[in-house]
Amino acid sequence: MSLNPTILIQNLLNGLMVGGLYALIAVGYTMVYGILRLINFAFGDVMVMGIYFAYYGATLIRLSFPLAVTVSLAGTALLGIVIDRLAYKPLRNSPRISALITAIGVSFFIESFAVVFFGPNYKPFLDALENKTIAFESFVIGNVYLPKIIFIILGITAIALFILFVIVYRTKIGMAMRAISADIPTTSLMGINVDNVIGFTFAISSALAALAGVMWALRYPSFYPYTGFVPGLKAFIAAVFGGIGSIGGAVVGGILLGVIEMMIITLFPTLMQYKDAFAFIILIVILLVKPAGLLGKRTVEKV
């Protein structure tokens, strides 16, 4: 089997880009899980709402694209807080299965709302851009075709993850988040408003999902209410792969998942139609071999 270096480099960059987007959503999963031990399956749908907010902000309200994205991040952050307050807060002391079922219900509700309110048809995200050619511009180095949008997405993803790490590990609110993830009752006794910190966690994780959604739509500029379903599932797998509950693990798991997917397609083009199955095979293998994930720590479940 001969391997074309040009295709290898192009797909490696594509894998890094897609993996970075998986990582952004996976961080949202792992932040909420780390604090509440809750898998919020609605993150893929929050991602889609972020795309809709940016799209209609630019096309209907006529905001500039950067301002429309800012509005999208703020809108999805607020949506995350609303989801927590209405759906999850009443179940803080309920069995975890109740919260899990609620998370699935929230996901279905957002999807159905988007179908009814925005319509079921695909929409062209490029209509939201002032400069539509940016999605097609590229560098050509030797025989390697390098789309500029990939570098833009990689750069924004790196900046977003850097800001997140600064918030979590260098600020008081980040210290409170880490304290709550270790012990909620003790943290509340120390005078920390647990509900406010949890709400902030939902806000920032939802904003990251929206940012991932906007960049996903820039790279694959056609979207509809169920666009976030597969990326959301794969981001969950990436979080488990890297070690759910670990932010660094979510980033590593997301990037590795994206690169592995693209490299398998590069090496075995006939398996292209089974691309989405690779993530689930990886999930099964990691659960069998290292259930805590690559960077996760084995914990004892409290009864």
UniProtKB/TrEMBL annotation:
GO terms for molecular function: L-isoleucine transmembrane transporter activity; L-leucine transmembrane transporter activity; L-phenylalanine transmembrane transporter activity; L-valine transmembrane transporter activity. The keyword Ligase does not apply. It is a multi-pass membrane protein. Its main location: membrane. GO terms for cellular component: plasma membrane. Signal peptide: none annotated. InterPro entries: ABC_transp_permease (IPR001851), BCAA_transport_permease (IPR052157). It is found in: Cell membrane. Keywords: Amino-acid transport, Cell inner membrane, Cell membrane, Membrane, Transmembrane, Transmembrane helix, Transport. The keyword Membrane applies. GO terms for biological process: D-alanine transmembrane transport; L-alanine transport; L-isoleucine import across plasma membrane. Belongs to the binding-protein-dependent transport system permease family. LivHM subfamily. PANTHER family: BRANCHED-CHAIN AMINO ACID TRANSPORT SYSTEM PERMEASE PROTEIN LIVH (PTHR11795), HIGH-AFFINITY BRANCHED-CHAIN AMINO ACID TRANSPORT SYSTEM PERMEASE PROTEIN LIVH (PTHR11795:SF371). This is Branched-chain amino acid ABC transporter permease. It comes from Fervidobacterium thailandense.
